[in-house]
Q: What sequence folds into this?
């Protein structure tokens, strides 16, 4: 009669780690990414069972694998939703900022229009006053003096 030794916890964790790396988990759904917690769950244990203090070499291997395959891991649904929420928040802030700019510019435009209206009234008033002054003012004609002809050097006689 052969008695087989029961697997150690570390052996269970290592097998679970290999299954997750191969993409063929037995306990977790297909496509579950490799993580320290998922290795413990795949081994059928609580995630707190895979401690660095007890399984330091295995935890270091898992962390090394995660570091070397960082770019290969697909983003999780949670991370995708967080990014989408951030984009939505950014868009909302941009819209809020643009509305504030629009309101400020509309206010400036209203002020400019009021100023143009005020200046238009002043110009009309001054034009009216000028027309009244022109009617009542005595305008003396200006005598335009023609300049005298300047002699050319050839026209002058010399006493030789």
A:
């Amino acid at each position: 009669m052969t008695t087989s030794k029961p697997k150690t916890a570390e052996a269970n964790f290592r097998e679970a780690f290999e299954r997750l790396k191969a993409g063929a988990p037995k306990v977790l759904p297909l496509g579950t990414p490799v993580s320290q917690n998922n290795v413990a769950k795949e081994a059928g244990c609580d995630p707190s069972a895979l401690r660095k203090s007890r399984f330091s070499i295995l935890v270091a291997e898992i962390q090394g694998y995660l570091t070397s395959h960082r770019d290969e891991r697909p983003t999780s649904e949670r991370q995708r939703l967080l990014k989408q929420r951030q984009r939505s928040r950014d868009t909302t802030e941009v819209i809020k900022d643009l509305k504030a700019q629009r309101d400020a510019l509309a206010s400036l435009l209203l002020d400019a229009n009021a100023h143009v209206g005020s200046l238009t009234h002043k110009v009309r008033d001054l034009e009216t006053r000028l027309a009244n002054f022109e009617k009542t003012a005595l305008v003396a004609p200006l005598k335009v003096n023609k300049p005298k002809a300047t002699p050319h050097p050839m026209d002058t006689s010399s006493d030789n």
